[in-house]
Hints:
Layout: H1 8-19, E1 26-30, H2 37-49, H3 64-70, E2 77-80, H4 96-107, E3 116-120, H5 128-139, E4 145-151, H6 159-163, E5 166-169, H7 175-184, H8 189-198, H9 203-229, H10 235-244, H11 247-266, H12 281-297, H13 304-316
Parallel strand pairs: 1-4, 1-5, 2-3, 3-4
Zinc ion binds at residues 50-52, 59-61, 63, 65-66.
Amino acid sequence: MKLQGWLGEHWRVLATRLQRNELPHAVLICGDAGLGKRSLANALASAALCEARQADGHACGICKSCQLLTAGSHPDHILVGFEARDDGKLRSEITVEQIRQLSQRLSLSTQYGGLQIVIIDPADKMNTSAANALLKTLEEPSASTVIVLVSDHPAHLSATIRSRCQRIELKVPERARAMEWLVEQGISIELAEQALESALGNPGEALGAISNEVLGLRGECARDLLELNTARTSALTVADAWAADRPAERLWHAAVIARDEALRLADGKPGKLGLTGAGEIPKLAAWFAAANRSRELLNTQLRSELVVLDLLHAWQMPRRP
Length: 321
Ligand SMILES: [Zn+2]
């Protein structure tokens, strides 16, 4: 398991305590959304249950326990989160019944003779009676139980619960660490820098914003290409719009759209752009190359609307009757 780089320090402390059998009975992992709280909680749970931990303290990923955990069926791994109501909708709080069931399970001995790991997430959504019930469990700790509370809003937890937990507070990481991680996720340096700035340095939030933005822009480009196919718009209109707003990014999306369309058709799946059958694949491949060439032409003296218009004409060309 690869943790976000900025969690390294927290991880080393937890891994050492686990190694020495000195994990606290209750841990509160808190901090803003996007900083990796769940990654840290899951890494701790996996490591605590693993039968053959690696040198860095992480779970091996292959022992019997790790396999059960991956399959979601490890009997000593207990997740407490929002449950579905009778009408199938998800509740928005954690109820006292859930915490009572938890206490009952914890009163039985562990199935594998190791630790029992509980993750309560989001812990700040326990209602008052649930929180009171949990307090009883926290006051009577069992040596084989570790309860991990995960919370974006620790201030919403009662002071008595907080005082029973070892607190791990995740902070916005150093810029270099956040950048490194975003680039590892396949984001360009330029885009990562912009997104990180508007997310005030929060890497998870930056990645979320980039994903939304990328999907939104790609969706717009796909819609334009489909409308060109069905003659609901003109190449000139689309070229003007694309040239006026992030033309290089749009051409990159256009190339990716053509490639994905070709892959779908090659798989015998229906295309998303109204194209019919494998006969279109060579045209899509040619257009993928053309879109990438046009993107390079944007860096020359040529006017971008003409570069884009040329490419869009090539998109329409094979489809004229
Ligand atoms: Zn393992």
